[in-house]
Amino acid sequence: MQYEAYTPAEYMDALAPDWRRKTVAGLRSLIKANGPDLVEDIHYKMLGYADAAGYVFHLNAQKSYVSLYVGDTGRIDPDGDLLAGINCGKGCIRFKKSNEIDQTRIDEFITRALALRASGETFEC
């Protein structure tokens, strides 16, 4: 889904007060906590998180899931251990209503992605 928002606050206000807002808020908090130097803004009508080299993450609420766009998840988590139990596409991680963020290892995944980025590794699709 696309939201007519020009700031992260407007984006969050546009979300229905349901599990998707809670999931976006939780992922947003993890990204901010692990990447305090990332700048949060609206990019491609979704939340974007960038550093001096460009965008690292995008976050968007869809009808049936919340997507965390990260690029090639296999480069970040080659064994798939950190994303076990979460639906993944080629460049995104899909959180459905049944996924509780605190019962996943997504915080470790985000930390690993940022460490790879800091070391100069890329994980774009």
Write the SSE topology.
Elements: H1 8-14, H2 19-34, E1 39-43, E2 46-51, E3 54-61, E4 66-69, H3 73-76, E5 87-88, E6 92-95, H4 106-118
Antiparallel strand pairs: 1-2, 2-3, 3-4, 4-6, 5-6
Helix content: 25-40%
Q: What order do the SSEs take from the amino end to the carboxyl end, as H and E?
A: HHEEEEHEEH
Residue ranges: pLDDT <50 for 5 or more in a row? Answer: none
Strands in their spatial order, largest beta sheet: 1-2-3-4-6-5
Give an overview of the whole structure:
This protein has one domain (8-118): Aspartate Aminotransferase, domain 1. Strand 5 and strand 6 form a beta hairpin. It is 32% helix and 23% strand. The protein contains four helices and six strands; from the N terminus they run H-H-E-E-E-E-H-E-E-H. A six-stranded antiparallel sheet has the order 1-2-3-4-6-5, covered by helices on one side. The protein is an alpha+beta fold and 125 residues long.
